[in-house]
Amino acid sequence: MIARPLENLLIDRLQTPIGEALIVCDDEGRLHALDWKDYESRMLRLMRLHYGPSVNLETGRGPASVIRALAAYFAGDLKAIDEIECRFSGTPFQESVWAALRTIPVGKTMSYSGLAARIGKPAAVRAVGSANGANPISVVIPCHRVIGADGALTGYGGGIERKLWLLRHEGIEVGRGLVVGSR
Q1: Is 143 a known active-site residue?
Q2: Which residue among 55, 83, 111 closes a domain?
Q3: 94-100, Cβ contacts within 8 angstroms, sequence gap of 24 or more
Q4: Considering the entire predicted model, what is its pTM?
Q5: pLDDT per residue over 25-46, tens digit each?
Q6: What is the DSSP letter of 182?
Q7: Residue 158 CB neighbours (<10 A)
Q8: Considering 9, 11, 140, 143, which one is annotated as catalytic?
Q9: Does 104 reside within a domain?
Q10: What is the pLDDT of residues 83-113, one digit of tens each?
Q11: Most buried among 39, 133, 175, 176, using CB within 10 Å?
C-alpha cells in the first residue's frame, strides 16, 4: 500500500439496526472507512496500513451529510448512500474493484466472476475476492452485494448475519444461505 499524506481523520459512531457503525471521515466530508464496533481493531489496523502509522485518528462528529445519508439508507431510502463521496487508499487493482462495487445497483447481486469481468480481468476471480474482502467502506461500497457463482452468501467482513440483513433490506430474496431472487 502507498501511504498518502492526509489531514486528521475523525471517527464517529452511528447506531444502525445491525449494530454500531464506525465512520471515518476527513475534514472535507469524504468517507474513508465504515466498519462495525465489533471489528474496530481491524478497522484501525487497516487505516494505519492504508494511510501510514502516523495517521491521526480523532473522535469527532461525522459530517451531517454522511450521517443523514446513512441514517436514510437504514430507514429505507436505499439510494441515499449513492451521494456519499468516498476516498480510499489501496493498490490500483483494489481501487478498481472498489469502484466497480459501487456500480452494482441496489436490489441486485453479482458474482465474483462477474465482478472480475466487469473490471476487465476475468481470470482474476480470487484477486477480486481478496480486494472485496479488504474493502474499507462497508455498506457504501456494497461488497455485501457480491455472492458466489451458485448464489451462495459467501463471507462478509461484518459477519454473514449483517450481509443477510443488508441484502434483505435491499429487497433481495435470500433463503437457506442462497440468493433466490432480486427485485
Answers
A1: yes
A2: 83
A3: 94/131, 94/134, 97/128, 97/131, 97/132, 97/135, 98/131, 98/135, 98/137, 98/141
A4: 0.90
A5: 998 999 999 999 999 998 988 8
A6: -
A7: 22
A8: 143
A9: yes
A10: 999 998 889 999 999 999 999 999 999 999 9
A11: 39
